[in-house]
Specification:
Keywords: Signal. It comes from Exophiala bonariae. The protein contains three helices and ten strands; from the N terminus they run αββββββαβββαβ. It is an alpha+beta fold. It has a domain of about 100 residues: RlpA-like domain (Barwin-like endoglucanases), CATH 2.40.40. Strand 7 and strand 8 form a beta hairpin. It is rod-shaped, with a radius of gyration of 74 Å. It starts with a helix and ends with a strand.
Length: about 250
């Protein structure tokens, strides 16, 4: 019953509405509105910046978007306003490590030349020759070396019969006991003699030119020139240990 009641109420309302609508004259002016739909194609381009260090991706296909535009032809044509899409440019920033600048090389300061200190090296001593020798031998050759003291005399006319210059000649006077009593024509006169200083290694050649009356053993007397030479200028009137032999 309730449903039927509702149906009757609705029917009565519709009937009153129909009665209220006035009848329109055929010559009455009315407005007719037409709506047109235009389809506009908008092309969009996407700009992509590619990092050269990365692999190049395949190009993106161009997209086409169709935007419907509503145009009303009621009184005037109003063009639709299109929003222009701005392509966003994406910038890829890559970090590059900063290389520190090389420090300028500082030239090495020139060091002052080092003056070498004098080394206190002791001179190598000259090994003295064998001082052994005979004080009674024949003194013939280096294998029969004699040894004794050396002194010096003033030279002049000697036992061999000629004048001896003590300041310039290298001459000796043999010991009286070795040379014998004979003077002029003595077989030892004029013979060549070799003198050796074993302390310094000095060797001097001389000649027999006189006889020494005060010399003992195998000691000999020398001219001043010979004495200074065999003693290296360090003799003090007499020097022991001088070797000599007939050469």
């Amino acid at each position: 019953m309730a449903g039927l009641k509702n149906i009757l109420i609705a029917a009565s309302l519709l009937a009153s509405t129909v009665v209220a609508i006035p009848m329109m004259d055929k010559r009455a002016i009315y407005t007719h509105t037409e709506t047109e739909i235009a389809w506009v194609t908008v092309e969009e381009t996407t700009t992509v910046y590619v990092d050269e260090s990365l692999p190049t991706p395949p190009p993106a296909p161009a997209t086409t978007t169709i935007v419907p535009a509503a145009i009303f032809a009621q009184t005037s044509y109003v063009p639709s306003t299109f929003a222009t899409q701005v392509a966003s440019v994406s910038t890829t920033s890559s970090w590059v490590p900063e290389v520190p600048a090389a420090a300028p090389s500082v030239p090495a300061s020139s060091a002052a030349p080092v003056t070498p200190e004098p080394s206190n090296v002791a001179p190598v001593p000259v090994q003295p020759k064998d001082t052994t020798g005979s004080t009674t031998g024949t003194c013939e050759g280096s294998g029969n070396t004699c040894v004794g003291d050396v002194t010096h005399w003033d030279g002049g006319l000697g036992a061999c019969g000629w004048n001896v210059d003590t300041s310039s000649q290298m001459a000796i006077a043999l010991p009286y006991g070795f040379m014998g009593t004979q003077s002029n024509g003595n077989p030892f006169c004029g013979r060549s003699v070799t003198l050796v200083n074993p302390a310094s290694g000095t060797t001097v050649q001389a000649t027999v030119g006189d006889k020494c009356m005060g010399c003992e053993g195998r000691s000999i007397d020398c001219t001043d020139a010979l004495f200074n030479a065999i003693t290296d200028g360090k003799g003090d009137g007499r020097l022991s240990g001088i070797q000599w032999y007939f050469s």
